[in-house]
Specification:
It comes from Aliiroseovarius salicola. Keywords: Flavoprotein, FMN, Prenyltransferase, Transferase. Its EC number is 2.5.1.129. 42% of the residues are buried. The protein has a six-stranded parallel sheet, with helices on both faces. Strand 5, helix 6 and strand 6 form a beta-alpha-beta unit. The chain has seven helices and six strands. The protein has one domain: Rossmann fold. With 188 residues, it is an alpha/beta fold.
Length: 188
């Protein structure tokens, strides 16, 4: 299986999730294609600090302009393990759910679905409207995995960073690339 992964970061709160996914994929030696929305650029800076955007870009092998729908990752002929959108805004989820390939992030996600590759969406919103739930159902029926970033409280995390790291690792594990990254449940 390819160790090349697309990471999309959209503008929902939870930018640290995208940063953690990028770092963990880098640590695994995966080749990372990165697509960041303009709203995500702002959210990364506001939630993670002034250097966060540069840091996440440093983890990537290739940074794609979200307006470039002709990028390599917009084609099904490019071998990939799959794609993670972390976090996934409800706007991005709705666009993917309805096949609106209106930017590279949503186009690349649509390509994963048509090629029957893994697409993991860390859907970030609360509470949820009926539109959100219907879009989640629709994209799940198409083959995506909707993974709201819910903490694994049973692991008794001692910090927000521990929660973010576990959620990001769990998302990576859902791509099925090999050795599990997330801390597993064990009986007490």
């Amino acid at each position: 299986m390819s160790k090349r992964v697309i990471l999309g970061i959209s503008g929902a709160s939870g930018a640290a999730l995208g940063l953690s996914v990028a770092q963990q994929l880098n640590d695994m030696g995966a080749e990372l294609d990165l697509v960041i929305s303009p709203a995500a650029e702002r959210t990364l800076t506001e939630e993670c600090g002034a250097g966060a955007l540069a840091t996440v870009k440093d983890f990537a092998n290739t940074c794609h302009d979200i307006r470039n729908i002709g990028a390599s990752i917009a084609s099904g002929s490019v071998p990939l393990a799959g794609m993670i959108v972390a976090p996934s805004s409800m706007r991005s989820l709705a666009a993917i759910s309805n096949g609106l390939d209106d930017n590279l992030l949503t186009r690349a996600a649509g390509v994963q679905l048509k090629e029957r590759r893994r697409l993991v969406l860390l859907a970030r919103e609360a509470p949820l409207t009926l539109a959100h739930l219907r879009n989640m159902t629709s994209v799940t029926e198409m083959g995506a995995i909707v993974m709201p970033p819910v903490p694994a409280f049973y692991l008794r995390p001692d910090s927000v960073d521990a929660i973010v790291t576990q959620i990001a690792a769990r998302a990576i594990d859902l791509l099925g690339m090999g050795n599990p990254q997330a801390q597993a449940w064990s009986e007490i």
